[in-house]
Amino acid sequence: MSVISVNENNFDEIKNSEKIILLDFYADWCGPCRMVSPIVDEIAKENPDYLVGKINVDNEPKLAQDFDVSSIPVLLVMRDGKIVNQSVGAKTKQQILAMIED
Fold it and tell me: What is the pLDDT of residues 11-52, one digit of tens each?
């Protein structure tokens, strides 16, 4: 499955997914975000059981505020509409997968 661009219009639909959700809060100008982005893309491609979305904090400031995102990148894992894991900063693929499977 490919990565979904998440915005205020589609967030409720995504949040209510029965799949495990991985959200990547990022900005185009952020170096660590650019390091994490291809890893998140790879995880989405290899794991169709996950719903993987990216939220550009510059384009979606309300969503960033709703999740108290003050530093990026932020990775959130959600199950049943609730945050079950989150981290700030660049992570390896193994670290991200461990967050999801935790």
Answer: 999 999 999 999 999 999 999 999 999 999 999 999 999 999
Check if 35 is active-site: no
pLDDT band with cut points at 50, 70 and 90 for residue 102: confident
> Could you tell me the domains of the chain?
4-101 (3.40.30.10)
Active-site residue flag, 78: no
End-to-end alpha-carbon separation of the chain, Å?
21
Of the candidates 6, 14, 30, 96, the residue annotated as catalytic is 30
* Structure confidence at residue 1 (pLDDT): 67
CA nearest neighbour of 99 among 23, 35, 32, 42: 23
Among 4, 6, 23, 33, the one annotated catalytic? 33
The two tokens of residue 72 are 């990026």
